[in-house]
Amino acid sequence: MKAQGSVMQVMVGVLVVSVLLLFLFIVRTNTTQENISTLGRTSQTFRSRLVLTNIDSMTIRTHSDRKMELGEALSYACSYTEGTGPDFIDNTRIEEILKQYLDNYFGEENYVLEIDNCPTSISINTGKFSSLEGERRIGTDYLLNLPVNGETATVILYL
Amino acid sequence: MKTNRKAQFSTYLKPVLVIVFGLLMVMVVQQVLSFQISIGEEEAGMDFVSQMKRDFQKISNCLKYTGYEGGRYVVSSDKLEEYEEEYSFREPPCAEDFEYGYAVNVSTRCDLVNTGISCFPEEYVFGERNGSEGRSLEEELTLTYPVLLRQDENNVPAEIKITMRDGELERLSGGYNRVIKKGVEHGVFNMTYRISNEKTYCTSGSLLCVGNSAEHCTELRQEVPEMTLEPGSHILRFSYHDGSIKEVRGVSSDEGCS
């Protein structure tokens, strides 16, 4: 009887230890999975930021044959309401270049670009935004200084 | 009679229960261990990717076009030309990785967008182009990062493609380069370095090569004493003074590549 008791005690002990081990193991697995997904998100944000930084500094030629950086052109476009901007800025041309670059880099269906605090309508793929809402999209923002009113516009790239 | 049967039942049941329980425990422990190993591998992979990002930052900083205020990731074609010539088989000192090895390919991506600006194809390669292969290579990963290339006073789309390797050749060359770097900084520097290698390695001048001949080699920061390292576990003792590595103890022989 006494022997039977001690076997039972050992078995219960082992069971408790295994449950504890299992619990620790689950916690560790969850932490690692979180770390992996954080790393994935960080990498994606890093890549988006690189693309936005490149957009800012990319040299373009406007419709009036003026050479400038795409970020500067965007800043001008966002400083004025539609139709009141300087004649060397053509929003359609800017949007076209932006869309072509992003389409070729990420694939047409894989991103959404929005610009906050921009009176002119430069936004790409925003019509597709509703179809992306169900999924968890990561937005990376990039500030554009507006030369006319001293404010800033925010370019947000969702992947 | 009833008590006897109960005792008999218990006598047979106990060892069976103990065996079943033992087997279950072994299975649980085995599962936990195999999962731990896979988690360890994933964590190592995460470190590898993070290191790659750090290396990219260092490389893009080294290549940055400085004749202009903006553009953090605008790389200079003059620097690229220089790097391709100077560092065709080793990492540039300003972005050296002593743990892993990498090769860099920078090319224009004129196909991505028509900006109205002329963009012509250019391609540059530098870094540790020859790396570990087969069983001496533990991990290899290639990632591309978008950048801009300064071309005729314009910033045109380009990309930096980095191929990073974790292997014996990379670790061994990293060890040598670390000693040389520290030696240059401090004048005198000694370092002990443990390495387990499955392939033979030899040196010839400033080359560290796989096998016994100078065919598949990576370039070191400077000339090093001749040696051959046979497969096995080694504790290498490097001694740097008077401007170069004078001695490496623990090698298999003092004969270099044939």
Rounded to an integer in angstroms, the radius of gyration calculated over CA atoms of chain A is 27 Å
The ordered H/E elements of chain B are HEHEEEEHEEEEEEE
Largest binding interface between chains: A-B, 36 and 37 residues
The beta-strand count of chain B equals 12
Strands across the major sheet of chain B, in which order? 1-4-5-2-3
Head-to-tail CA distance between termini of chain B: 88 Å
Strand content of chain B: 25-35%
What fraction, in percent, of the residue positions of chain A are helical? 40-55%
What is this structure, in a nutshell?
The complex is a heterodimer of chains A (159) and B (258). With 159 residues, chain A is α+β, with helices and mostly antiparallel strands.
Which helices and strands appear, and what pairs or packs with what?
The complex is a heterodimer of chains A (about 160) and B (about 260).
Chain A: H1 2-57, E1 59-61, E2 67-69, H2 70-79, H3 91-106, E3 112-116, H4 129-132, E4 139-145, E5 152-158
Antiparallel strand pairs in A: 1-2, 3-5, 4-5
Chain B: H1 2-63, E1 74-76, H2 77-86, E2 101-108, E3 123-127, E4 137-151, E5 154-167, H3 168-186, E6 189-197, E7 201-204, E8 207-210, E9 216-219, E10 228-229, E11 232-241, E12 244-249
Parallel strand pairs in B: 1-4
Antiparallel strand pairs in B: 2-3, 2-5, 4-5, 6-11, 7-8, 7-10, 8-9, 11-12
What does this structure look like?
The complex is a heterodimer of chains A (about 160) and B (about 260). In chain A, the strands form two sheets. Chain A has a three-stranded antiparallel beta sheet with strand order 3-5-4. Helices cover about 55% and strands about 15% of the residues of chain A. In chain A, a hairpin with a 6-residue loop joins strand 4 (about 140-145) and strand 5 (about 150-160). Chain A has helices at about 1-55, 70-80, 90-105, 130, and strands at about 60, 65-70, 110-115, 140-145, 150-159. Chain B has about 260 residues and is an alpha+beta fold. The model of chain B has no long low-confidence stretch (mean pLDDT about 90). At the A-B interface, helix 1, strand 1 and helix 3 of A face helix 1, strand 4 and strand 5 of B.
